[in-house]
Write a structure and sequence with these properties.
The complex is a heterodimer of chains A (105) and B (416). Chain A has helices at residues 29-38, 45-59, 66-70, 77-83, 88-96; strands spanning 3-8, 11-16. Helices cover 44% and strands 11% of the residues of chain A. The mean pLDDT of chain A is 91. Chain A has one domain (3-96). Chain B has 416 residues and is α/β, with parallel strands linked by helices. Chain B has three domains: 2-106 and 255-318, FAD/NAD(P)-binding domain; 111-251, FAD/NAD(P)-binding domain (3-Layer(bba) Sandwich); 331-412, no CATH class. Helix content of chain B is 23%, strand content 26%. Chain B is built from seven helices and 24 strands. Chain B has helices at 11-23, 132-144, 164-178, 200-212, 256-260, 300-318, 373-390; strands at residues 2-7, 29-34, 39-41, 60-62, 71-74, 78-82, 87-90, 95-97, 100-103, 107-109, 126-127, 148-154, 185-190, 215-218, 223-227, 232-235, 240-242, 245-249, 252-254, 285-287, 331-338, 341-347, 356-360, 364-368. In chain B, the strands form eight sheets. Chain B has a five-stranded parallel beta sheet, covered by helices on one side. A five-stranded parallel beta sheet of chain B has the order 11-18-12-13-14. In chain B, strands 6-7-8 form a three-stranded antiparallel beta sheet. In chain B, helix 1 (11-23) packs parallel to helix 6 (300-318). Classes of the chains: A alpha+beta (105), B alpha/beta (416). Chain A binds chain B through residues 1, 16-17, 20, 22, 61, 63, 65-68, 71, 77-78, 80-81, 85-87, 90, 99-105, and chain B through 156-158, 162-163, 192-194, 197-200, 202, 206, 219-220, 222, 224, 236-237, 251, 266-267, 295, 297, 331, 333, 335, 345, 347, 353, 412-416. The complex binds flavin-adenine dinucleotide. Flavin-adenine dinucleotide binds at residues 8-13, 34-37, 43-44, 46-47, 77-78, 104-106, 129-130, 160-161, 164, 255, 257, 289-291, 298-301, 303, 333-334 of chain B.
Chain lengths: 105, 416
């Protein structure tokens, strides 16, 4: 796997080829904000609530899915799409500093 | 006498019955296995059935044929588990007491989870191939289908055998070429993932296959509903894909008995320790195969590796020893690519599929992550291995329960 160093909000972080942080420890809210800007997402409190939920699930090693978000009580799937249009799980995972959801191959 | 109870006599339950009857003393342990079916289906064969490659009789056999002597088989539907009292309640209200319970009830399709998927069109223009009936009805449809837009679709992850839909698309390409009507069929592969392949090495090595076979890919598609009247599927982002024939893998869920028992996640999968296979429900309840929530692939080969480790851990549990945290998510899957060729992938929780040879380093005869005829022969041989070795709990020579890295080209990778 090739990784690159990137600087977000003055913090040097390691990213994979697709721009996902490879070490969650390097994440902070400003880093998240800078990545969101790259994704052209204007962050609101609701966005951060979703991000927090994703990070909690990640720490508990729970694989994420659209259904899980819909049942989280944080947002409905429709709202999730409104917050992070086009591939919301991909985009929100990137802003959260957690790995992109993948299949086995 | 102590009671060991296995729920489900599919791939995993049958393997555990065979392993444990050998491992546990007949004087001390009764083993009972419960399943609602008369038939043991060879599910990997459901991929070939629609294309008339396998006949129906090649994918089904009587369930009792594979249950060893000394294990009691009950053909009943299970209603629920009463974990607090160590009891299982059957649908006929009979009650089974256990000292150790193994949940092996697998996963099944839940088309009712997607709005508009079921209806008059179900198994007429919208098909699944994850059930025997679905695969057979689809075969009958394909025999007379005159062409149009074929959409191969995954509703949501996780699904069992996550590569099967892609294999279906590849085999469809082959099938229509052989029928001399490929120009009349437009094949589109629609997935909720970010692509047909998501791991970097597989993407690099295999990405060209789709283009080469003229299969269009629609990624990041999370289906909201099927609009059967207008023959299209619509996602939460309002994206639409039109079809004439929709071959979908509906949401996969664990059996409702898990929900009725008061545990299980939002898809009725059983919370399970991914290294020991003990459930998080109660110490004397274990789970194996598709029924668990562990982040391994839901595949027969995975269940086979799990069975070896679970057999040891059940014995350790009985002896009061610490459980081995040994399961590493090892999976080994053949992927049919059509035209008599296949790929082979071997991976685990942390190591993504890479190139190399299998099972003998530098020798093969199988090639990892590469299309070969030999791999295709391996896939076909898997049916024989399944019926004669795998579910009978025989060790498959040269293939270990945990993943081996020899013969693999690892230098370029590490898991994401
Ligand atoms: C199209 C397709 C292709 C596949 N290809 C491959 C492949 O190439 N390689 C591979 O390794 N794997 C493949 N698989 C996956 C493989 O078949 C499964 O992973 C495997 O069968 C899982 O075994 P299991 O015992 O956990 O579940 P199952 O074999 O599904 O068994 C579950 C059993 O539990 C019983 N049960 C459930 N609920 C109840 C209840 N309430 N009461 C009574 N009985 C109940 C069911 O009747 C069933 O017999 C494929 C699957 C499909 C659908």
């Amino acid at each position: 796997m090739t990784t690159t160093e990137k600087t977000y909000a003055g913090v040097c972080v390691t990213c994979n080829e697709q721009g996902y942080l490879t070490n969650f420890e390097q994440w902070n809210k400003d880093v998240g904000l800078a990545i969101a800007k790259e994704e052209q997402i204007e962050m609101t409190d609701k966005h951060w609530e979703v991000i927090q939920f994703l990070q909690e699930q990640h720490k508990k090693q729970v694989p994420l899915s659209i259904r899980k978000i819909g049942k989280s009580g944080v947002v409905s799937i429709k709202e999730f799409y409104q917050l992070f249009p086009k591939g919301p799980l991909k985009i929100s995972s990137r802003i959260s500093g957690i790995p992109k959801p993948v299949s086995c191959i | 006498m102590k009671q060991l109870l296995i729920l489900g006599a599919g791939t995993s339950g049958t393997m555990m019955a065979n392993h444990l009857r050998k491992a546990l003393s007949k004087k001390e342990w009764n083993i009972t296995i419960v399943d609602q079916e008369e038939t043991h289906y060879y599910q990997p064969g459901f991929l070939f059935l629609p294309f008339d490659i396998y006949k129906t009789k090649q994918v089904k056999k009587k369930i009792e044929k594979f249950i060893p002597k000394g294990v009691k088989l009950l053909k009943e539907k299970i209603n629920r588990i009463d974990k607090d009292n160590d009891l299982v309640v059957l649908e006929n209200e009979n009650i089974l007491q256990y000292d150790i319970l193994i949940i092996a009830t697998g996963t099944n399709i839940a088309p009712q989870e997607i709005e508009g998927m079921l209806g008059d069109h179900w198994q007429k223009s919208v098909f699944d191939f994850y059930t025997f009936e679905g695969a057979r009805n689809l075969r009958n449809k394909l025999r007379t289908w005159e062409g149009g837009k074929l959409v191969v679709h995954i509703s949501e992850m996780p699904i069992k055998c996550p590569v099967a839909p892609l294999e279906f698309a590849f085999l469809a390409d082959s099938y229509f070429i052989n029928k001399g009507m490929r120009d009349k069929v437009d094949i589109t592969y629609v997935t909720p993932m970010s692509g047909a392949f998501t791991k970097p090495i597989a993407t690099k090595e295999l990405g060209h296959l789709l283009e080469q076979k003229n299969i269009k890919v629609v990624p990041d598609f999370n289906i909201e509903r099927v609009d059967a009247e207008n023959q299209k599927i619509i996602d939460y982002g309002e994206e639409e894909v039109a079809y004439d024939l929709l071959v979908t893998v509906p949401t996969n869920m664990g059996d409702e008995l898990i929900e009725r028992s008061g545990f299980g996640d939002e898809l009725n999968f059983v919370p399970t320790d991914k290294t020991t296979l003990q459930t998080k429900v109660k110490d004397n309840i274990f789970a194996i195969g598709d029924a668990t929530n562990i982040p391994a692939s839901k595949a027969g080969s995975v269940a086979h590796f799990e069975a070896e480790i679970l057999t040891e851990n059940i014995q350790r549990y009985i002896q009061g020893k610490e459980l081995k945290k040994e399961f590493d998510g090892h999976a080994n899957c053949f992927i049919e690519t059509g035209h008599g060729k296949a790929l082979l992938i071997d991976f685990n929780y942390t190591q993504e599929p890479v190139k190399g040879t299998f099972p003998f380093p530098n020798v093969g005869p199988l090639s990892l992550l590469k299309e070969t005829h030999m791999n295709h022969m391996g896939k076909l041989a898997f049916r024989w291995i399944y019926w004669n070795m795998l579910i009978k709990g025989k060790h498959i020579p040269f293939v270990s329960a945990t993943m081996s890295t020899s013969g693999k080209q690892l230098e370029t990778t590490n898991n994401l």
